[in-house]
Amino acid sequence: MFQEMLQNVREKSPLIHNITNYVTVNDCANILLACGGSPIMADDLAEVEEITSICGGLNINIGTLNHRTIPAMIAAGKRSNALGHPVVLDPVGAGASALRTDTARRLVEEVKFTVIRGNISEIKALSGASAATKGVDADLADRVTEENLGEAVAFAKSFAKAAGAVTAITGAIDVVTDGETAYCIRNGRPEMSRITGTGCQLSALTAAFVTANPDQPLRAAAAAVCAMGLCGEIAWTRMTPADGNASYRNYILDAVYNLTLQQLEEGANYEVR
Amino acid sequence: MFQEMLQNVREKSPLIHNITNYVTVNDCANILLACGGSPIMADDLAEVEEITSICGGLNINIGTLNHRTIPAMIAAGKRSNALGHPVVLDPVGAGASALRTDTARRLVEEVKFTVIRGNISEIKALSGASAATKGVDADLADRVTEENLGEAVAFAKSFAKAAGAVTAITGAIDVVTDGETAYCIRNGRPEMSRITGTGCQLSALTAAFVTANPDQPLRAAAAAVCAMGLCGEIAWTRMTPADGNASYRNYILDAVYNLTLQQLEEGANYEVR
Amino acid sequence: MFQEMLQNVREKSPLIHNITNYVTVNDCANILLACGGSPIMADDLAEVEEITSICGGLNINIGTLNHRTIPAMIAAGKRSNALGHPVVLDPVGAGASALRTDTARRLVEEVKFTVIRGNISEIKALSGASAATKGVDADLADRVTEENLGEAVAFAKSFAKAAGAVTAITGAIDVVTDGETAYCIRNGRPEMSRITGTGCQLSALTAAFVTANPDQPLRAAAAAVCAMGLCGEIAWTRMTPADGNASYRNYILDAVYNLTLQQLEEGANYEVR
């Protein structure tokens, strides 16, 4: 079921406009190329509407947010909406500062997002629910576990409905929902959180998947989340005792590059709730 | 013939000032170190003239262009001109937005460039010729092939003459010309375009080569283009089935680091037209 | 003695706020994750005080300095001081431009730093002593060698006393001192200078070490310097003939990820003067 999603990425090679942070931007560009898409990064207000117009989809990421880029995010988002392009939001660090929380909320108010992807603390901050945060990581108290999964699914569905966007809450167990159907995904490895930007990369990957599959945003987002986690698992099998997070980062990108339709179809580990 | 160009880079270890984008900047710094040069990145108007003065050459790259850095590019370029330093322009994404096209043209008007390096779509956009673009990649319709090579060489020569700069149009076949002599280079691999920033890296490398060989900008630029492509070939021989664009990126930088004079001399694959 | 310093990093997992350059920021984030810490990058004046408040320590790095981030550095530094958080300064390129030299000096005047880490040229520029610089690298004439080590230690001690900060002057031999005691460290390899950002990474690592060991800044900083150099040595043992600076960069981060308490205790190569 997910293999068609990947096949469409490979066949259509969607061009994705990214307004993103300077920490993980190189990895975001490389994961887009790895999956078969194509990246362009542009964040100046003077060009973002034009750039987003020649692209198929838009990925907005608020890490290293600054006053120069906020109006560019709004303008690009509105233009993408007008053109009917898929738009993804990664609310990096929402809850960690008022600037990030307020900007993320303002983005959700002014732009219609196809997918919002973040960790549980970030999505809680966006929802206005009280949430703890450990910087850009989910707070331990918030984490989605087998024990609180039912609760997490209910929260994700309710958030997705209110936001009118497919919502992907990623962590040890990922929950991807459009408010009606929820995919609970158990791909991935805990060591992925020891690499900076695996979340940012997943958001870029998700943008490619929903852009290549515009009529099935829920399934496309779930496929992207499975693909990222699965590539984390495949990459882990290459690890030698001397390897650490730098090699693991490379191996994950390599795995995305080499991921076959069959691997994704067979390796995707999810249940629908 | 090209080995002397590389030898001079290794012996002189040119310090290159880079005003470049935040997507591929780390790779640009590492390729400069790999080839034997030394990088410094600085983009604030308050310091670029001073920084460029202590350097041997300047590399201007308009990816992730923004209003803060445009005046810095102009000021650094003019100062470099006044000092007689080589200056390289990489017009990333010219043609993709008015901001980029206009800024690239303004740069060419106000600064004398030693080398302009871009893909065919970018150089066409700079020339005012009608050109399609796929974001930061060359449009398929524009690509230089064996069939249209004669035409491409004629265009490159005419552009180089008009711009008064050695022009390097890179793609499946690279054309490097000063308007009189053209090197047609068949090094490289198509998979290099699946790595973000191989073009940006080549521009940084070219800056090191022309700075270390100030009296032979055409030959130095052609040597840099051959070296980059050849390193893409050498790196490819290391690829295992599990490797993808992340490992390939590393292997290319490693190959630049280890490139011998003899490898370059024997591996350079070009004809002169 | 140094193993407790590393153990505390692993156990406390300090969250470090980084205001740093866009060249090496990804590596800084990954080394913090590799050592067991956690990074957050934020540089907008509107959020830096809030961000630094939720962190344990602050790392300020003036590479790619610009007018937008200078007030953010000052504000974050003052807030960290008010909260009693450790603060590290990396005066990248001080001496290379008035903007960098003046900003570094202003930072030292307005913010109390726990550790200042730079190469000898940068620290000399900060001290007001006449210094040469090769961009962001130490000038050859300045370099600390066995011959001038006594002199370098005396200079470092006098600078540390005047600045009221542990000072780490890194190079072929590293000198880390609080003005009274100096650790002279002989870990590391010359090839580390062929990778962009090993200095920036060390500053981030140092911030994690002093944050996890707030009562022993001298010992913590010396441990971080030994750890970085030792990981350069360990990584070097993995190098194959085809490997260059890209693979070496990855291997060093991997070595930090895998560094054991025993490796650090046994591999730290220093004398106290």
UniProtKB/TrEMBL annotation, chains A, B, C:
Residues at which substrate binds: M41, G197
Cofactor: Mg(2+)
InterPro entries: Hyethyz_kinase (IPR000417), Ribokinase-like (IPR029056)
SUPFAM superfamilies linked: Ribokinase-like (SSF53613)
Pathway linked to the protein: Cofactor biosynthesis; thiamine diphosphate biosynthesis; 4-methyl-5-(2-phosphoethyl)-thiazole from 5-(2-hydroxyethyl)-4-methylthiazole: step 1/1
Domain of life: Bacteria
GO molecular function, one term: hydroxyethylthiazole kinase activity
Catalysed reactions, as listed in the record: 5-(2-hydroxyethyl)-4-methylthiazole + ATP = 4-methyl-5-(2-phosphooxyethyl)-thiazole + ADP + H(+)
Record keyword ATP-binding present: yes
UniProt similarity note: Belongs to the Thz kinase family.
Name of this protein: Hydroxyethylthiazole kinase
Source organism per UniProt: Faecalibacterium gallinarum
UniProt lineage: Bacteria, Bacillati, Bacillota, Clostridia, Eubacteriales
Gene responsible for this protein: thiM
